[in-house]
């Protein structure tokens, strides 16, 4: 590592312990964690150094790399650009793909009808605001306001919440960075991470994320695990790095240390 990438002592010690886990899961948020945030979500890509680190980890025995995101599974697979056998959790835990096969069903016909009704009601509000757009997901949709003027974005989010709550009081509503999401099923990234841990039979987990929704996953971690917050936002994580570049350096260091332990 370069001096600029040097780990904080507490994180360095935690990484050393994690590298020795018999079977390790490296589960990561994507946007803001592996990839810089961009105005066009489908153009997002992991930093080159992060992609290299992920491949190095994937090549190690008893080491599983997974992505856990609020994106739909389809969108996550597109931007993640990882092999098809990579475990993926999309839509905040509602969509799970453990391997190369088809994902587990996220919604039924009744759920789909609720989503369609709500979307039809909110679409005119979104269309009236320049730069706002809707990202469709299996169990709902997200209203994005990243490129919308601040006051207009706040007004749109307020109006969308009010319209949604008047139509469907059972909705799950989540706030994120420049986005508000409506879902007819309640699940979190924590739920998704629990599924990965149980189904993959791992001994320890590294989870890293930057957004408020990543806190649900960070709260599930135990004493053998490692949680890392990317960025300056408030967090329950014990460790923090500044940005995706710093997170890529952590992943690269983990790959080096784990390779050394496994080959000893």
UniProtKB/TrEMBL annotation:
Its EC number is 3.1.3.12. Pathway: Glycan biosynthesis; trehalose biosynthesis. Gene3D superfamilies: HAD superfamily/HAD-like, Trehalose-6-phosphate phosphatase related protein, domain 2. It is an enzyme of class 3 (hydrolase). Pfam families: Trehalose_PPase. It comes from the Bacteria. Its cofactor is Mg(2+). Keywords: Hydrolase, Magnesium, Metal-binding. It catalyses: alpha,alpha-trehalose 6-phosphate + H2O = alpha,alpha-trehalose + phosphate. One of its GO terms (biological process) is trehalose biosynthetic process. One of its GO terms (molecular function) is trehalose-phosphatase activity. InterPro entries: HAD-like_sf, HAD-SF_hydro_IIB, HAD_sf, OTSB-like, Trehalose_PPase. Belongs to the trehalose phosphatase family. This is Trehalose 6-phosphate phosphatase. It comes from Microcella pacifica.
């Amino acid at each position: 590592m370069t001096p600029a990438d040097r780990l904080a002592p507490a994180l360095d010690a935690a990484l050393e312990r994690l590298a020795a886990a018999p079977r390790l899961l490296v589960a990561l948020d994507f946007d803001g964690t592996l990839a810089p945030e961009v105005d066009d979500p489908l153009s997002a890509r992991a930093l080159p150094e992060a992609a290299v680190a992920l491949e190095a980890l994937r090549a190690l025995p008893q080491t599983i790399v997974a992505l856990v995101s609020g994106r739909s599974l389809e969108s996550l697979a597109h931007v993640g650009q990882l092999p098809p056998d990579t475990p993926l959790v999309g839509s905040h835990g509602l969509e799970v793909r453990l391997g190369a096969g088809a994902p587990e069903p996220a919604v039924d016909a009744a759920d789909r009808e609720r989503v369609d009704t709500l979307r039809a009601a909110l679409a005119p509000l979104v269309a009236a605001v320049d730069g706002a757009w809707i990202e469709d997901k299996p169990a709902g949709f997200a209203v994005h306001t990243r490129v919308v003027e601040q006051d207009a974005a706040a007004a749109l989010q307020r109006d969308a919440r009010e319209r949604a709550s008047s139509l469907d009081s059972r909705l799950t509503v989540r706030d994120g960075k420049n986005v508000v999401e409506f879902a007819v099923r309640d699940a979190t990234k924590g739920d998704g991470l629990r599924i990965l841990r149980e189904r993959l039979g791992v001994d320890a987990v590294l989870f890293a994320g930057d957004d408020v929704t990543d806190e649900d996953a960070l709260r599930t971690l135990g004493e053998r695990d490692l949680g890392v917050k990317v960025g300056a936002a408030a967090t329950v994580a014990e460790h923090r790095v500044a940005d995706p570049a710093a997170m890529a350096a952590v992943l690269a260091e983990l790959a080096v240390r784990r390779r050394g332990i496994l080959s000893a």
